[in-house]
Write a structure and sequence with these properties.
Jelly Rolls; about 45% helix; alpha+beta; about 20% strand; about 425 residues
């Protein structure tokens, strides 16, 4: 008899526990469903109901706090985050959100909340970043940047923002900025180098480029583009030529691939031959038949409305200021038909209006074999690079097509003895 009663009691207790578990699970499931719905729809009644169903669940308190934040109830949101933390004190995310809520209401407790988030999650970037940002705004500049630098080391995507904040905080002092952000990996060094190049600090930028051990091609081209856009030609040449510990000598002007013997590519970025792929009416190719010297020359086929004054073929090269140069090249032509002359022109690469420094004689309709050309030009006091280009003068008539063929070969440039004082205006 006693055994039967005991068995009945145990069975009844098990059933009650099962029923309670089912009821509790259903209650929790309903609360989480309401909480999720309320958070995505910003429905305060829904999250209120979720809290009422499971008042000890920290996640529903978190969701209610987020809804309160989005609804502008900042002070009540802080209290709700605190309730969530009471139930889950080791959740760094809750401390982080509490810090944000306190920060929005100028609550001095924001600093404590962010510090606790950092303590609980020392290897996560966001707590360090939020703590550092607040410290910076509180006037704790060095401590703040130390935290944000640690965040950027964890998450490199934060590094550009760190650089920008440091630039503003330290008044554009590139030495202090480099010291504060302290780039330790090559990708960060190049990010800072590009920032300095854009801001007109070429010496600091090129120093970072030299310090980098490995620079991916995309980043190298990006830095090269930044230097060229800022007209920092000596630094651009060093990046284009490859990492070097020696500054290029701008007095030793030289034409790259002067005889077109190397592989050419369209839309070259840098100091090789630039052959625009988008210029209509022009076909360009290397030609191994009858070069002036070597094994190849460059052949240009003109087939119609080529834009006047547009560079058909060009090259950027370093020069020295206040100097006299002579450019040599060879050309031959066949059946040129044009209302405006075709020639080689040298312009100042650093000027806003591409000021002309010199030009060759116009090409004849059909040449008797290869013809040697030369032209002299003088650089101004601020000229550090020039553009050598094949183009045609502006047309004086509305319809101005051009047809025919031109071959170019054997470019060279020499610096003539003696310096000059050239007028830049």
């Amino acid at each position: 008899m006693c055994r039967s009663i005991s068995r009945f009691i145990l069975t009844s207790a098990g059933l009650l526990a099962c029923f309670w578990g089912v009821w509790f699970s259903g209650r929790c499931g309903m609360a989480e469903l309401l909480s999720y719905y309320g958070s995505v729809s910003t429905s305060l009644p829904a999250v209120d109901k979720a809290v009422a169903l499971t008042p000890d669940n920290p996640l529903v308190h978190r969701d209610r706090a987020l809804v309160l934040l989005q609804s502008g109830h900042l002070h009540e949101a802080k209290l709700e985050f605190e309730r969530a933390i009471e139930r889950q004190p080791r959740n760094y995310y809750l401390w982080l959100e509490l810090g944000r809520a306190r920060d929005q209401t100028n609550d001095q407790g924001a600093l404590t909340a962010f510090q606790e988030a950092v303590r609980l999650a020392p290897y996560y970037a966001e707590p360090h970043w939020q703590l550092g940002n607040l410290m910076l705004r509180l006037g704790q500049r060095d401590e703040g940047f130390a935290e944000m630098r640690q965040a950027a080391e964890i998450d490199v995507a934060l590094f550009p923002s760190l650089v920008d904040l440091a630039w503003g905080a330290y008044g554009g002092n590139d030495s202090l900025v480099a010291k504060i952000v302290n780039p330790r990996i090559d990708s960060s060094r190049i990010v800072l180098a590009r920032y300095f190049a854009i801001k007109g600090r070429p010496s600091a930028a090129i120093a970072l480029f030299r310090a980098a051990h490995t620079v991916p091609e995309t980043e190298r081209r990006g830095l090269l583009s930044d230097f060229l856009a800022a007209k920092q030609f000596a630094e651009a040449h060093e990046v284009w030529a490859g990492k070097s510990r020696v500054q290029p000598d701008p007095t030793g002007a030289a034409i790259t691939d002067a005889g077109f013997e190397s592989q050419i590519s369209f839309d070259e970025l840098g100091f090789g031959w630039h052959l625009p792929s988008s210029l209509q009416g022009v076909r360009i190719a290397v030609d191994s038949a009858n070069p002036h010297s070597g094994t190849r020359s460059l052949k240009i086929q003109l087939d119609g409305n080529v834009t006047p004054a547009a560079a058909i073929v060009s090259q950027l090269t370093l020069v020295a200021p206040n100097s006299q140069y002579r450019l040599h090249f060879a050309a031959r032509t066949r059946e040129l038909i044009t209302e405006s002359p075709l020639l080689i022109m040298v312009t100042d690469a650093g000027g806003r209006d591409a000021r002309e420094l010199g030009h060759s004689e116009s090409f004849t309709k059909t040449s008797d074999g290869w013809q040697d050309y030369s032209l002299d030009f003088a650089t101004g006091q601020d000229t550090t690079a020039v553009v050598v280009a094949l183009l045609r003068r502006d047309c004086q008539v509305s319809h101005c097509p051009v047809y025919g063929r031109i071959w170019l070969d054997d470019f060279s440039i020499e610096k003539l003895p003696g310096a000059i004082i050239a007028a830049d205006q």
